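[audit] Reproducing an earlier prediction to check determinism. Same input, same settings, fresh worker. If the tokens differ from the archived copy the diff job will pick it up downstream; this log only records the rerun itself.
[audit] input (83 residues):
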Amino acid sequence: MIAPSKKGQSALRAVYELAKRQAESPIKISVIAESQAIPLRFLEVILHQLKGSGLVASKRGFYGGYTLAKSPSKISVGDILHY
């Protein structure tokens, strides 16, 4: 079995955190980075790519942050790793 890359692992952890905090959304990137121990700059790149693939949505502004664009039950590990 091949293990996902560091980027893939971080993407899985970021989506997990968004799913876990779905009721609190939108979630600030700093909260995701701190709770999952992902470097902020690295997470910015990952979330930008996940947003481009349609898995994650963002909201700008003081009350902004990131949310899942789909229900967590509709997102597979393969979807996340193939962004």
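[audit] rerun output stored. Observation attached for the diff report: The chain has a mean pLDDT of 93.
[audit] end
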